[in-house]
Amino acid sequence: MANFVSSLKPSLAEATYESTDASRESRVHPEQNLLGQFIPLHYHFQMLQDKQRLEGFRRAIELHVKPGMHVVELGGGTGILSSFAARCGAEVTCVERNPELASFARSTLHANGLDQQVTVVEGDATEFIPSQPVDVVVCEMLHVALLREKQTSVLEAFKENYLQNWNEQLPRFIPEASRLMVQMIHHPFEFEGYYAPLPIFQAPDANANDGLIELSSLVDYAHIFYDEPISDTIRWRGRLRASANGFLSALRFVTQNFLSVESQCDSPTWPNQFLILPLQEPSPVLAGQEIDVEFSYRFGDPLESLHQSIRVEYLPVAEQKVH
Ligand SMILES: C[S@@+](CC[C@H](N)C(=O)[O-])C[C@H]1O[C@@H](n2cnc3c(N)ncnc32)[C@H](O)[C@@H]1O
Fold first, then answer.
1. 218-252 as b/e, with b when 16 or more CB fall inside 10 Å?
2. Dihedral sign from CA coordinates of 83, 85, 89, 93
3. Could you tell me the pLDDT band of residue 7, with boundaries at 50, 70 and 90?
4. Lowest mean pLDDT among 12-26, 103-117, 206-220, 277-291
5. Burial of 71 (0-12, 13-18, 19+ CB in 10 A)
6. Is residue 125 very low, low, confident or very high in pLDDT (cuts 50, 70, 90)?
């Protein structure tokens, strides 16, 4: 797995990053930028139910956190990831902006006997400056395609603050990397006889009994390494090739998070929910036919930002070698 991930690194340069597009930003209502960040307490129950997420983070934390280390968690929520680090013997600072969550984390860590090892700081992680050097940073503000939540901007702010205040090398980050992919699919968007082409979230382990047909393999469009500088905007242009005849009605976005890339085998990973976005111009495609796809969005933007930016050009079949 480590080899696989290091082989991704050079291709970072292939993705085109751009600075903020002010004209597009002005079309986004400021409130939309808050969606996905003030996650109410009852939604955290769903996050606590996600066994693959918790097991992946627990394993990555157990791999890298040793007794006596100082661990910072950015966006601590209920405090569960901080508890994993505390149970490895670390001193933990858990930063959480939502007062309801910060208070819940404090009392819950106390109930678990971990309040001596974990200090909960109520505040904005982008402004947090640790009072001592940090060995490991845990940050789970991950959403498919890195939309909605502010994983990248929070980590960029943390890195800048940290390097300014501590003349140290950066800590290890958990997760270490995210792999962003896109695929052609057919989805019927049909619900009890009612046609409704709308964005759909799909659990990675869901049985595909909803009429979904994969029409191409997954193609990588970005590899994000959290210890490297990350731009806030991505613009991608690429070509997808149909692997079967079918009716192309949507693109599916898949994000795989590498929680630790160092262990040689069985590296802990966690996929976000898949995102299916209907196309403005659905069309039949033939096996071997290619389409040009273009989209751009800022990490942390609402879903609509990516959805509205998608452009698809169907290449003329006659000019292609259709198999
Ligand atoms: C996806 S939840 C993860 C919670 C917890 N780490 C877990 O894994 O269960 C992200 C958390 O980050 C918090 N958050 C978002 N932006 C933040 C910011 N700028 N500063 C501090 N906390 C933030 C949210 O309130 C939320 O509790």
1. bebbbbbbbeeebbbbbebeeebbbbeebebbbbb
2. negative
3. very low
4. 12-26
5. buried
6. very high
**pLDDT on residue 19:** 34
CB under 6 Å to ligand 1: residues?
Answer: 37, 39, 47, 75-78, 80-81, 95-98, 101, 124-126, 140-141, 150, 154
Cβ burial of 45 (10 Å; 0-12, 13-18, 19+) is: exposed
Alpha-carbon span 38 to 44, nearest angstrom: 11
- Which residue is listed with tokens 């969606």? 35
More reliable by pLDDT, 67 or 265: 67
Atom of ligand 1 nearest to the CA of 82: 6
Q: Contact, 65 vs 123, CB < 8 A?
A: no
For a pocket test of ligand 1, which of 141, 150, 161, 257 has the largest count of ligand atoms closer than 8 A to its C-beta? 141
Give the position, in ligand 1's atom list, of the atom nearest the Cα of 47: 9
Peptide linkage before 130 cis (omega within 30 of 0): no
Residue-wise pLDDT for 231-260, tens only, equals 999 999 999 999 999 999 999 999 999 999
E strand or H helix at 274:
strand 274-285
43: enclosing H helix or E strand: helix 41-49
The beta strand positions in 123-193, using DSSP E, are: 136-139, 172-174, 177-186, 190-191
Euclidean distance between CA atoms 230 and 249, whole angstroms? 32
What domains sit in the chain, N to C, each tagged with a CATH number? Answer: 7-174 (3.40.50.150), 178-319 (2.70.160.11)
Tokens standing for residue 259: 């929680």
C-alpha 117/C-alpha 94 separation (Å) is 10
Distance CA 58, CA 60 (A): 6
Percentage of the chain modeled with pLDDT above 70: 85
